[in-house]
Amino acid sequence: MSGILRDTVIRFGAFELDPNSGELRKHGIRIKLQDQPRKILVALLEDPGGVVTRDELRQRIWGNETFVDFDHGLSAAVNRLREALGDSADKPRFVETLARRGYRFIAPVEGVPRASDPAPPIPHWTKILIITAVLAAGAAIGLMWMNRGKTPAPNEPIPLTTYDGGEQDPSFSPDGSQVAFSWNGANQDNFDIFVKVVGTESLIRLTSDLADDRLPAWSPDGRFVAFLRRDQGVYLVPSLGGTERKIGEWPGMFSQFSWSSDSRTLLVARSQIGLEPAGIFMLPVQGGPVRRLTAAEGSGHDQSPAISRDDRRLAFASCPGVLTCAVALLEFDRPALYLAVP
């Protein structure tokens, strides 16, 4: 590791990498990055703008070990790095592929000195504030003791978004640090999917299609956000931003999704099509057969699927009429995600 990288935190775009700890953060939020992609990123950042050959990366990752399928392993590690950065091989913003040669880091890079000075002594006025805070805490505890048994007042909600227009369909990231939602913009003319980091003003736009994008649902592994594009289908987009991907045609029903625990399957409601009844279906996100789980009676419909954490129970709204629904429960002999494969 070069001296520059050892003594600095590397900043590029919205990301920061600490080469010492290997931590990658975006807008201050830690991003999960496996060991091999991290080593590739460090190697590229040691020579930004320069070409790092495939053989140099092989030495960096595997050393002198015998690795039969080296090309496939390196390509897979670079793809995982691009996923973490929300990057694309076709239109790279960070990592550029040079055919048969190697890779190059193309984004501007800035080295931020790592703070190493000892903490300054606490000023006298700060000590006074600390003492005051301790006394106030003691008074608060006494007040709580006096008011024990009384019904507490409800917590006041804190605005997360204050934009013009309508913000709807919130979905928390698995770690609770971010919220995906749909917003129809300042002109209130079209819904797209956005991500807001809780406690900051950081806003990431994930979609920009002319059709309405609604009902974002964060995958349990935190990598993707599923959403419904009106009259077009079900889509996935990386939660850090990137190229969206259509995973299924889905006419009619406008109902939220539910993810299987392994982030490989979506449970989606679909309206009646011809003589095919409405129902809840399992949609594999990496391709494969769509599997029906429920079949509504007559002209009724099933909606709002929610799968249990062990994938063995499905709760959903069973609606025989337009405004009449009841919650139904479907149990499986084994985790439902295995039913997605015939």
Folded structure, characterized:
Helix content is 19%, strand content 32%. It has helices at residues 3-6, 35-46, 54-62, 70-85, 124-146; strands at 8-12, 15-18, 23-26, 29-31, 51-53, 95-98, 102-105, 110-113, 167-172, 178-183, 192-197, 203-205, 213-218, 224-229, 233-238, 245-248, 258-259, 265-270, 279-284, 291-292, 301-307, 313-319, 326-331. The strands form six sheets. Strands 4-3-2-1-8 form a five-stranded antiparallel β-sheet. It has a four-stranded antiparallel β-sheet with strand order 9-10-11-12, with no helix packed on it. A hairpin with an 8-residue loop joins strand 18 (265-270) and strand 19.
Structural class: alpha+beta
Largest sheet: 5 strands, antiparallel
Spans with pLDDT under 50 lasting ≥5 residues? Answer: 116-120
Radius of gyration: 25 Å
User: What's the arrangement of strands in the largest beta sheet?
Assistant: 4-3-2-1-8
Distance between the termini: 50 Å
Strand content: 25-35%
Question: Total number of β-strand segments?
Answer: 23
Mean of residue pLDDT values: 81
Query: Helix-strand pattern, N to C?
Result: HEEEEHEHHEEEHEEEEEEEEEEEEEEE
Shape annotation = globular
* Total count of helical runs of at least 4 residues: 5
**Range of helix content:** 10-25%
